[in-house]
Amino acid sequence: MPLFCNLALTLALALVLFGVGPGQAAPAAPLSEATQACLDCHNEATPGIVADWKRGRMAQKTPAQALKEPQAQRRVSAKDIPAGLMQVAVGCAECHTGNPKSHADSFDHGDHQVHPVVTPADCAVCHPQEREQYGRNPMAHARANLLKNPLYMDLAQQTNGVPQAAGGKISMQPASPAAEAESCLYCHGTEIKVLGQQSRDTGAFGEMSFPKLGGWPNRGVGRKNPDGTVGSCTSCHTRHQFAIEMARSPYTCSECHKGPDVPVYKVYQVSKHGNIFYAMHKQWAMDKVPWTPGKDFTAPTCATCHVSLLADPGGNVIAQRTHQMTDRIWVRLLGLIYSHPQPVSPETWKITNADGQSLATTLDGKPASKFLIDAKEQAVRQKRMAKICQACHAQGWVDGQMARLEQTIKDSDAMVLAATRLMLEIWRQGLAQGPGKGSPFDEYIERVWTQQWLFYANSTRFASAMMGADLGVFDNGRWDLNKTVRHMHDWIKVRSKK
Amino acid sequence: MPLFCNLALTLALALVLFGVGPGQAAPAAPLSEATQACLDCHNEATPGIVADWKRGRMAQKTPAQALKEPQAQRRVSAKDIPAGLMQVAVGCAECHTGNPKSHADSFDHGDHQVHPVVTPADCAVCHPQEREQYGRNPMAHARANLLKNPLYMDLAQQTNGVPQAAGGKISMQPASPAAEAESCLYCHGTEIKVLGQQSRDTGAFGEMSFPKLGGWPNRGVGRKNPDGTVGSCTSCHTRHQFAIEMARSPYTCSECHKGPDVPVYKVYQVSKHGNIFYAMHKQWAMDKVPWTPGKDFTAPTCATCHVSLLADPGGNVIAQRTHQMTDRIWVRLLGLIYSHPQPVSPETWKITNADGQSLATTLDGKPASKFLIDAKEQAVRQKRMAKICQACHAQGWVDGQMARLEQTIKDSDAMVLAATRLMLEIWRQGLAQGPGKGSPFDEYIERVWTQQWLFYANSTRFASAMMGADLGVFDNGRWDLNKTVRHMHDWIKVRSKK
Amino acid sequence: MPLFCNLALTLALALVLFGVGPGQAAPAAPLSEATQACLDCHNEATPGIVADWKRGRMAQKTPAQALKEPQAQRRVSAKDIPAGLMQVAVGCAECHTGNPKSHADSFDHGDHQVHPVVTPADCAVCHPQEREQYGRNPMAHARANLLKNPLYMDLAQQTNGVPQAAGGKISMQPASPAAEAESCLYCHGTEIKVLGQQSRDTGAFGEMSFPKLGGWPNRGVGRKNPDGTVGSCTSCHTRHQFAIEMARSPYTCSECHKGPDVPVYKVYQVSKHGNIFYAMHKQWAMDKVPWTPGKDFTAPTCATCHVSLLADPGGNVIAQRTHQMTDRIWVRLLGLIYSHPQPVSPETWKITNADGQSLATTLDGKPASKFLIDAKEQAVRQKRMAKICQACHAQGWVDGQMARLEQTIKDSDAMVLAATRLMLEIWRQGLAQGPGKGSPFDEYIERVWTQQWLFYANSTRFASAMMGADLGVFDNGRWDLNKTVRHMHDWIKVRSKK
Predict the structure, then answer these.
(1) I need a labelling partner for C362 at 20 to 30 A (CA). Which of B381, C31, C136, C297 fits?
(2) Is the pLDDT assigned to residue C11 strictly greater than 50?
(3) Exposed, middle or buried by CB within 10 Å (0-12, 13-18, 19+), for B442?
(4) How far is CA A158 from CA A151, A161, A360, C126, C459, in A?
C-alpha cells in the first residue's frame, strides 16, 4: 500500500506541480540532428519562437507516434511519411529545410538550405488531405479573386489610394504596395518575392547573409509563396505552438472576419453561442479530437460548424472534418452586391455575369447561375450544417431558424436593390459620374451607396445566420439599410431641384 | 497513516484527474423513469443537449437535496415541491411534461405528453419567488411594451420595413414576421403559437409527429408562451446546463444590451469593473451562493449590482437577491426620448403623457409623473444600490459618482431638447413631414434626430452610470450629441434658404 | 515512506484544495498595529476592499522579504525602506497614513491621520524608480497637457458643452465640471481638492467626520493630488489587489485606449497578437518576473512591448523594465493633427509650432522640430522595440513591418493634408467661420474634418503599428479617410454654387 501510495503520489504531484494540461509541455520527442543544430543558435537568437514551439504537439510527438493514434483521433492525414521524419519531432529543420529546390527563398544558413517561408506544400508532407481540401476553398484563392477582378480592384484603389486636394479639386495617387500589403492583402495574401540577398551583422553570430523578401511579413490566406504554392496554413494554425485550441478559438477567425464588411465575429460576440463560449470555455476541452458537443464544449465556435470533426459521446460521427469550409455552406451571404448561391469554383474571379462583370449577380440582381451551385447541391450542404445544429437543437428549432435566414436574404437584397435604383437614377441624371464615365466608388454619394451592400446588408445577413440580433437592427443593420435609402433620396432632392 | 494516506490519495486523485470544478460533472442524481425514457433515445437524437444537461447542477442534485441547503445557500425558493419530483434529478421529463393541459404545445411523444417550450410556470414549481419577482420587471412585459405602443411600433416598422425605389420615389413594404422575430422580438419576445402538427422522418426513430410552432425559435425576455405565460427564464439561465456562472457573466446580458440604443455591455467593457473582470475572473468563484465581494470576486458583473444575493465574508447580507431588476434602479436612463424616474408599473405601454403618447415624457421633456415612482421611492432604490457600491468604495466616492450621473442626466436631456427643437422647427417649416402628416421616423433628417436620443444620449448616460468614459465622449457620446445638433442646423441652412 | 507520503500528501492536498495559484491567498504577512486597527472596523465597513487586498502580494509579503528577492525578480526598487515598514504587510495604514502633513486630505480618523487619496509619493516609498520613470512620461502630465493647450480645450468644450437651440439658432453652455470629470478628465485626471469637512452617520460606527473632496472619484493618469503630486499608480495597478497580471492585461489599457480617437485596444483585439492572447492566456504565467516570451506567454500584451522587464529562458535581459513608456516609442502616431517624432519633454503643452499653436505640427504639416526628438534618438528607441519583436520574429520580418508603418505614416498624413486643404478653402470662402472668426470645431463641416485626423488617421496608423488590418481599412480606416475627403468636397459643391 505504501508503495502504491508513493507511486500514485508521484503521479498526483506531477500532475499538480507541472500542471500538465492542454498546450503545456509534455516530454519532448527526440530531435533530428539538423533541428538540434538550429536550436543551438536559435535558443539565443529567437528564444520566443523556440519556447513557443516547445509548448506544442509537434515538439512532443513524432510522426510515427501520430500515425499510431486510432483513426478518429489522428491529426495527420498522410499514409506515408518519409522515413527520415518518422522518429523525430517536427522541428525547425523538418519544416524549414524540405524541398529546397522548389523554394526560391532557400538560402545557405549554417550547414543547411533554409527557407523562411513555410508553405502548404511543406505542411502537406504530413497533412495532404487538409491541404487538398483547403485548395478547393475560395480562401486559398483570395489573392487572385481580388486582384483579377477589375471592379474589386477599383474599390481597393478608391479605399487605399491617397487623395490630394488643390484648388478645390480632388486627385488621387495610387495606393503604395505597403498600403495594399497591410490592408486588403493582409488577409487576401501578398506575393512573397525574393528580391535579392542582404548581409547583416547578427551580433552574437556575426555577419550573415539572408534573402530579402518582398511582400513580407504576411500570412494571408491566399498568399503567393516563393515555391509557387498559394495559401498559408499559419493564418489559423498560429506559429509556433500550432495549438488546435487556437485554430478552434473564435478569436483566430476574428482577425479577418470582424470589419463592417464581414462582421461575422461581431455577430458571434453577441450571439447566445458566443456568450456561452466566453462565459464557460475555461471549463471546456478545446483540444479533443474528435470533438464532442455537450461534453467537450457546450456551444459552437466558428470551427465547430465550419471545419471540425464532430462525434457524439458514443463516437458516432456528426460531421467529418473539412478544410473546404464551403462544404457546409450553401449560400454566399457576403453580397457583392447581392447574396447568391455558393460559386461552383473557388476561383470566383472567373465568374462573368450577364453584364460582363466579374460578379455573381448583375446590378439589378440577376444571378450568373451557371457559375453557381444548383438547388440540389445547396440542399446537400444545408443538410450537412443542419445535422450539426441538431446535435443540440430539435429539428423544429433548426427549420425555423433556416426559414428566417431565407427571408432575411430576400429582404436585405431588396433593400440593396432600392438603394441601387437610386444610384442608377443619380448616374442617369448626371449628379455623379458612374460606370463608363468614372469609378462607381469615387464620389461621396457612391460611397454612401457602397456601404448599403458592403456593410449593412452583409451585417444583417450574418446577424440572421448566427442569431446576433444587434448587428441586424441598429448596429449596421436594418436601421442603417433604411436610413441609407432616405439619405440618398434626401441627397437627390437637394441637388436635382436646381 | 497508510490507510488515511490511501483514502486521501483517492480523493486527491479524484479531484485532480476528474477535475471536479464549477460546472463539471459531479455524481449524478437518480433519474425518474420518464427522464430515463427520454434519454434512451435523446442520447442519440440530441447528444449535445443531453451532455450539456449532465454538466449542470439540476442533473446532480435532487430537489430534496437542494431544500436541505442552509437558507443562504439555497437556490430553490419553493417551500413545497411535489413529492414525485423530490427524489430525482430535474431532468427532461421534469421540465418538459408538467402541466400538459395548460400547454398548447403538448404532444404525444413516446409514452408522454411533451411540450417543447418550457415556461416560467414550469420553472416556478421550484423557483416561485424568482418568477414572481421577474413578473414585476419591465423585461417580462417587453413584448407588450413594444407592440402596444404605437410610436415604438412606428419606429420598428421604419427600421424593419423593406423600402422600394421607383421613379425616384420611396415606398415601403411592411416588415415580415420573420424580420420582426429576429430583430426587435429576438429580445422582446415573439408569440409562440401552435400552427398545427407535422409528420417527420426522424431517421433512426422512424416517422413521428411534432407540433409546428410559429414564432419559434425564440427565448426573448417577454416571450408569449403556449401556456399563456410571458417570459423566458432561459434568456439568462442558458440551456441545458443552467450554470449560475453563466447568468452571472456579463456576456449573457450583452446579448440584448450591446447595440447603440442600449450599449450597456460596451460601457462595461471599457470600465474599470469590466477590466478587472476580464483580467482576473478566471481566479474567481463565479458560482458561490451567497456571493462575497472581494473574496469570491473582485469587481462586479451585471448580476452583482442588479440581481445577486451578496454577503460579506462574515455572512452578513449586503443585498438580497432580486429578479425584479428595477428594485435597485431609480432612474430610467434609456431615454425615449428623455430619461425619467422608473415607471411604477412594469407595463410601460399603459403610460400616457400630457400629449396622449405612450411615452414617459412629452417631446419637450415634461414627465408623466403619475406613472413614475416618486422621489421617496427613488431614494430607497438608490440607497440599495449605494450599499452595494459601498462594499468596496467609501461613501465619498459613491456620493461623487452619483452626483456626476445626476448632472449627466440633465446635460444629455438638454442636448436632446436642443435637437428636438430643431426637429420641431423643421416640421414647422415643412422641410419634413412630422406627426399628423407622416411618420416622425421615415425621413433622413428625422433619422438623424432619432439617433440623438436613441443612440448618443443613451450611450452618454450609461457611460456615466458605470464609468465607461469612451462611450460618453467620442464613441457615440457627447461628441456625437453636439455633432448631431450642428448637422441638423447645417441641414436646415441649406434647405430653408431656398 | 508513509511519513514522506503523508507530508507530500498534505502538500498535494493543500495545493489542490486551496488552489494556490496566481493571485490567490498565500499565508499573510504580519500586520502593523495601525493596519490591524483599520481592519477591525473596515472588515465590516468595506468588506470588499479588505478581502480584495488580502488576495494581493502586498498582504502576503513584507518589504523585508521583497528586498531579499534576487535583483531580477525584485518588484521594489527602493534601496532603503523605512525600518518601521520593513517587517509588516503593506496594509491600510502603510499607504493611507504616511506623510500626513503633505496630504491636504488627511483627517482624524480613529487614532490616525488618514488620507483617502494615495499618491505616487506614497507608492514611491518602496517604488521610487517606477515613480521617477513615470514622471518622465506624457501620461503623468496628461492633465496639464490638455488644460494648458488652448486648442485642445476648445475641442473639449465643443465636445462637452451643452448646446441650446432657439429660433433656429444654436448657442452653447459651457461644460459642467461633472461632465469634464467623467469625459476628458476621467483619463487625463481631475484635480482632487479638499472642499471642507462633512459629518456623516456611518450607521454601525456612529457619526464621523470626513473630508469633502472635489474632483473625486478619479484615477486618471495625470490626476492632481492633494499632496501636490501628479499621477495615479492605480490607473493601471488596480486597487486593492494590485496584481501584476492585471497591469499586464490588455484590458487595463483599454480603459483609456479604446475610443475612436485612440483605438489601440480595438487594433489589438483583431491582431494576431491579440488573438493568441485571448485564446491561450489561461495557460500563461501572467505574473512571472522577469517575463519570458514563449515560455511564460506566447504573444505580447501591451505591457510586454511598452513596459515589462523581459528575459529569455536563460535569464538574459531582452528589455529592461520601464515606466517611461516613450522609452520604446520613437514616433507619435496620435496625430494632432499630423503624426510626428516623440516630443522631447513629456509636458507637451509647452510645444509651440511656427504658427504659435501648442501643436507639434502646423496645419500644413510643418513639424516644431526643436521640441521633438531627433533622428538619432528615434533610432535608439526603435531599436529597443525591435529587439523585443526579435525575440519571436526574424529581423527580415521586423524590418518589413517597420517599413510599412513608415509608409502608412506618410500616407495618412497626406490624407489629413487633403482634408485640411479643403477645410482651409471652406474657411477662405466663408462657408464656415474658422480661426480668427470662431472655433475651428463648432460647425458641422469642421467636425467632419476633425474626424479625419482625430479618428481615421489615428486608427489607420495604430492598425499599421500593431497589424490590425480592419482598423486600417473599413473600420474607421482608409475607407473613411477617403470618404471624408469626398464628403467635404461634396459639401462645398452644393454650397459654393449658390
Answers:
(1) C136
(2) no
(3) buried
(4) 11, 6, 21, 56, 18
Whether C457 and C485 have beta carbons less than 8 Å apart is answered as no
Per-residue pLDDT tens over the stretch C36-59 = 999 999 999 999 999 999 999 999
> Does C7 lie at the interface with B, CB-CB under 8 angstroms?
no
C453: Cα separation from own chain's centroid: 21
Query: In degrees rounded to 5, what are phi and psi of residue C200?
Result: -145, 140
Nearest residue to C255 via CA among C304, C192, C321, C302: C302
Contact criterion met (CB below 8 Å) for A489 and B444 = yes
Q: Tell me whether the omega of the peptide bond preceding residue A492 falls within 30 degrees of 0, making it cis.
A: no
CB distance C163–B485 less than 8 Å?
A: yes
Q: B380-406 in b/e burial notation, b at 16+ Cβ within 10 A?
A: ebbebbbbbbbbbbbbbbbbbbeebbe
Which residues neighbour C219 within 8 Å (Cβ) at sequence distance 6 or greater?
B272, C232, C234, C235
> Cα-Cα-Cα-Cα dihedral of A476, A479, A484, A490, to 10°?
-150
Question: Chain A residue with minimal CA distance to C419?
Answer: A165
Report the C-alpha gap between C5 and C259 in whole angstroms. 56
Residue C216, CA distances (Å) to A137, A419, B47, B335, C203 in order: 57, 51, 55, 27, 23
Provide the grid cell at C291: 517575463
Nearest to A482 among B46, B50, B161 (CB): B161
Regions in chain A scoring below 70 on pLDDT? 1-26, 497-498
C50-84: burial string, b at 16+ Cβ within 10 Å, e else:
bbbbbbbbbbbbbbeebbeeeeeeebbbbeebeee
Q: Which chains have at least 3 CB atom pairs separated by less than 8 Å from chain B? A: A, C
CA B461 vs. chain centroid, Å, equals 19
Shortest CA distance from B494: residue in chain C: C495
How high is the pLDDT of residue C497?
Answer: 63
pLDDT, averaged across chain B? 93
Inter-chain residue contact A492 with B168, CB threshold 8 Å: yes
Q: Which three cell numbers stand for residue A154?
A: 477599383
The mean per-residue pLDDT over the stretch C395-418 comes to 97
| CB contact (8 A) between residue B5 and residue C3 | no
pLDDT of residue B392: 96
Measured distance CA(A104)–CA(C311) in Å, rounded: 35
User: pLDDT-based confidence at C167, cuts 50/70/90?
Assistant: confident
CB A340 within 8 A of CB A367: yes
Task: Find chain B residues with C-beta within 8 A of C212's C-beta.
Answer: 396
User: Of C383, C385, C341, which Cα lies nearest the Cα of C361?
Assistant: C341
Query: Angle, to 10 degrees, between the axis of helix B395-429 and the axis of helix B478-496?
Result: 10
- Residue C27, pLDDT above cutoff 60: yes
How far is Cα B346 from Cα B359, in angstroms, rounded to an integer? 13
Q: Structure pTM?
A: 0.95
Residue A207 three-state SS: strand
* d(C-alpha B171, C-alpha B179), whole Å: 18
Handedness of CA C298, C300, C301, C307 (dihedral sign): positive
Torsions phi, psi of B20, nearest 5? -65, 115
ipTM computed for the complex:
0.94
**Integer angstrom CA distances of residue A366 from A361, A370, A468, B261, C455:** 5, 12, 29, 36, 39
> Quick check: bond before C188 cis, omega within 30?
no
Nearest alpha-carbon partner for B79 in B121, B122, B126: B126
Read off the C-alpha cell for A401: 431558424
Q: Hey, are the CB atoms on A168 and C486 less than 8 Å from each other?
A: no
User: What confidence tier does C320 reach under pLDDT thresholds 50, 70, 90?
Assistant: very high
